[in-house]
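Fig. S4 source data, part A: sequence.
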Amino acid sequence: MAKLIYSAITSLDGFVTDEQGNFEWGVPTDEVHAFINNLESGIGTYLYGRRMYEVMREWETLRFSGQPKVVREYARRWRAAEKVIYSRTLESVFVPHTRIEREFDPEAVRALKASAEQDIAIGGPELAAQAIRAGLVDEFNFIVSPVSIGAGKSALPDGASLDLELLDEHQFTNGVVHRHYRAK
């Protein structure tokens, strides 16, 4: 059975973007990016909401020329993975291995977890909130940047109560910290 893993780059105060939707403060260094590549090496399918898909689809058209090795490696893996986009408004997708679902269906995700040969990543705090509330998320990876932005879009849903077990922690030279948790 595959695990459903929620990963997010967050500020110290738990936000994935500021109030204007910016996340430049969280752009990973090559060291952090290489670590993320390793974390996601076992991912076979990505689940995204429309906004997260619009951010991530840039990986499909990224030119490899002049890009660091860690960026090229991530792009190759991302392009090869299956992607499910949850959107009521998106008419079509332009990325191979990608399909649209109109509604998030917890039972369909449970079935996907039961049948998948590789782990499944869920990206974007709004979609992840639905999976968290449905009790579907098995593991959490938080890449915590040493910056407080005060307000914005929270990585975790309001009112969600989580009991987590810390599995791993890693500090990078730039002060970023990775925390890996399992849901109890």
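Fig. S4 source data, part B ends here. The chain has one domain: 4-178.
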